[in-house]
Each structure stands twice: as structure tokens, then as C-alpha cells.
50S ribosome-binding GTPase (Thermoactinomyces intermedius), 237 residues
Amino acid sequence: MSEYRIALAGNPNTGKSTLFNALTGLNQHTGNWPGKTVSLAEGTFHYKGNDYRLIDLPGTYSLFSNSADEEVARDYIIFEQPDVTIVVVDATSLERNMNLALQVLEMTERVILCINLIDEASKHGIVIDDQKIASKLGIPVVKMSARNGEGITRLLDTLHKMVSGQIITRPYRIEYSEKIENHIQRIEPKIKEIFGDSLPARWLALRLLEGDESLLRVLKQKFARKQPPARVTRAHG
């Protein structure tokens, strides 16, 4: 039996908390993220022989550094590297919600897109081709209505297949202008020299090109902790 950490990301009002409650039931607790005033909801559930720890990330519209909520969600996906990130989107506002999903796909390959509120979409005559979206994005896509319990089992089965290696994702990557792509190609090797494969080099390159000072501070703190003491460096120099 194994335990897997699952991050739950999404815009506000997508039904993310409803899904969190449906999966964890009474096996959950709330608090604050360490050093932050941002609330933390965490819960557990069991499925097909595995234990899962579900972390409900703050609802955000992006994963840049515009707020404490965005920084918490961003840092968890990047530095804690959950086994799977489930991105919850609103079926009635799919285009607007897809911005966050595409950002997550630049950060990690282990993603499931959960299209929630399909009952509301049906009322508005909205038809969603989940297979076509899955083919375009290169990740599993599950349609559901969390409040009605519809699609929960399919989501759990998809999650089980992903953690057991039965599903291999090939996430869609946004291609930017030639100028930006040239900058990325120059920066990526330097990032890999420092962090190896432990962090997504392409995503970091994009954030550095944008001058994300908040991320730079976090990177400096984490990188400083990994450095050997100065006297040890001299002794081997």
C-alpha cells in the first residue's frame, strides 16, 4: 500500500471545494499554510489499495505572483511536486478557466483535467467533447458534476491509473514568439546546471524572463540551503 499526494487546483467558484469534500468526507482538517495567512485544507481518502492525501490549493485565476494565494499554489506544485495535480475547471466557462490549466501544464506533466459542473453546462446547451480536449492537451480529461456525485468514480479510476503508471501524459506546451523561444533556449541549460531535473527548467526560464521577483526570492532561499558551508568548499578547492 502506498500514499500519494494529490494537489487540487482551480479558479474560484469551479466547485473545487465541493469535489474536495466529496473525496475526503470527514477525513479532513483545515489550518494555515506555514508562514502564511492563507487557509490550508487537507484531507485523506482510500481507493483500490492506495491512500491519498489531498491538498486543496487556494482558488486562483493564475499561478504568477500577484497574491499570497497564487504564490502558495505555485510554490506547492513547483517545490513540493505532488504525485498528481487535478485541475478543476467550470464547464460553463471553459475558455476562461483554461488559462490556469495551461499554466499548470507548463509546471508538471502529471495532470488530470476535471471538467466540473457539466449539469449546468447541459442546461445552457453546452456540449463538451472531453476526448478531443484530452487529445489536444495530452492529459486525461474527466467530465463530472461533483455536487451530484457524477463522474467521481471515473476520476478515481483515472487517478489510480496515473499513479500506477498505466497512464503516461504528453502535456501540450505553449509555443511563444521566436524571440521568446530563443531566450528560453539560452536560459534553460543554465537553470538545469543549477537545479538538474528537480525543477521545470522551461517554466522557470519563462518566469525569470518576466522578472518574477517573488519567485527569485524563493529560489535564492532554497538554493542557499542546498549549498555546502563555505569552509567545506575551500577545503576541497
The radius of gyration is 19 Å. The first helix runs from residue 16 to 24. The longest strand covers residues 39-47.
